[in-house]
Amino acid sequence: MTNEAPFPKVIGVSTPKGGVGKSTTITGLGLYLSLQGKKVLFIDLDNIASLTNNLQGAEVRYEHLSNVTHLFKDPEDEQAAPITVSVISDNIHLIQGDSSVSEINRSNDLTIVTALKDNLHMRVPNIESYDYILIDTPAGNGNTLLATLICADLIYSPIDLDHNAIGSLKELTKVLKPVKRGLNKNLQWGGFVINRVKTLVSVLGKKVPHSLGDRAIYESLVTAYGDVALLGVIGLRDPIKASISSGKWISGKDGSAQDASFEFENFCKKLMEKI
Ligand SMILES: Nc1ncnc2c1ncn2[C@@H]1O[C@H](COP(=O)(O)OP(=O)(O)OP(=O)(O)O)[C@@H](O)[C@H]1O
Ligand SMILES: [Mg+2]
C-alpha cells in the first residue's frame, strides 16, 4: 500500500467572451479557499496576466518571474527546468503569466495541448502539497483552453447579461463535448455565474437582476441550462474590483461591501459543492 498524497483537484475558468470576470472570479475563489485553510496553486494562462496582477496586489510588487510556457514543452525532455512557482502567501502559490503565452495560442503543434497535464505532474515542484490548482484562461477557444480542459476536473463560466451570453456558452459547449468524450472523461462543467449585474433585487430570497432587460436574459439562461447550472448572481460592485485586484478577499463595512462578499461567497460555495 502506498501513502501517496492524492493529486490536487484542478478547476479551470472559461467563457469565450472577454471581460466577463474570469480572472476576477478565479482570483476570488482562490482567496476564499485559502481562507478555508486550503492550499492553492494558481496558474495564469492569460497573456494579459490579470490573475498575476491581481495577486501581486496594488502595493506589493513581486519580481517578475515566469517560465509559464515551459508547461507546454515536451514533458519527456530531461534537460527542461522545473517550473517557477512564486510564493504569494503560505496558502497561495502562483505560476505567473505573461505575454509569452500568446505564442502557445498561435502554435499549430498539437502536442502542446496534452503537455500541460503531464508537466503539472512532472515539472511543478511539490505538486501533491496543493489542495487545488486553479487555472485562468484567456477569452476564446485557443490551445491554452484546450490544454486546461484536458487536465481539469471542473470548469465554470462567468457570464454577463449581454445578448451574446447564451451564444457564448454554446460556443464553449461545442469544445467541451468532444474533450469529455475522448480526452478527459472526468471533466465536469460546473455551470455559470452571472457577474457584473448593475442592480440586483431579492425575490423570494433569491437575488435576481432588477432591470427588465437583464431579467429576460437571466430567465433565458436559466431556462436553457437549468437552475442547477446557475452558480449565483454577482453585482457590479466597487468593493469587488478594489479588493480582488489587490489580491485580498472583499472587505468593508458598508452595504455594498457586505452584499459583494455575500454574493461572491455564495458563488464559491455553490461551485465547491460540484467537486
Ligand atoms: N463583480 C464585479 N464588480 C466590479 N467590477 C468587476 C466585477 N467583476 C469583474 N470586474 C472588473 O471588470 C473587469 C473585467 O474583469 P476580468 O478581468 O475579471 O474579466 P475577464 O473575463 O478575465 O477578462 P479577459 O477576457 O480580458 O480575460 C476588470 O476590471 C474587473 O476588475
Ligand atoms: Mg482575464
Question: How would you sum up this structure, described in words?
Answer:
The chain is of the alpha/beta class and 275 residues long. It has one domain: P-loop containing nucleotide triphosphate hydrolases (Rossmann fold, 3-Layer(aba) Sandwich). Helix content is 39%, strand content 19%. It has nine helices and ten strands. The strands form two sheets. It has an eight-stranded mixed beta sheet with strand order 3-4-2-5-1-6-7-10, with helices on both faces. Helix 4 packs across helix 5. The longest helix is centred in the middle third of the chain and has 19 residues. It is globular, with a radius of gyration of 18 Å. Adenosine-5'-triphosphate binds next to helix 1, strand 7 and helix 8.
Summed over residues and divided by their number, the pLDDT gives a mean of 92
Shape estimate: globular
What's the β-strand tally? Answer: 10
CATH class term: Alpha Beta
> Whole-Å distance between the termini?
26 Å
**Helix-strand pattern:** EHEHEEHHEHEHEEEHEHH
Largest sheet report: 8 strands, mixed
| CATH H-level superfamily title | P-loop containing nucleotide triphosphate hydrolases
Return the domain count. Answer: 1
User: Which percent bin holds the helix content?
Assistant: 25-40%
Bound molecules: adenosine-5'-triphosphate, magnesium ion
Strand fraction band? 15-25%
The second-level CATH architecture is: 3-Layer(aba) Sandwich
* Neighbour order of strands in the largest sheet: 3-4-2-5-1-6-7-10
What name does the CATH topology carry? Rossmann fold
Organism: Pseudomonas helleri
InterPro entries: AAA_dom (IPR025669), DNA_Partitioning_ATPase (IPR050678), P-loop_NTPase (IPR027417)
Pfam family, one: AAA_31
Protein name: AAA family ATPase
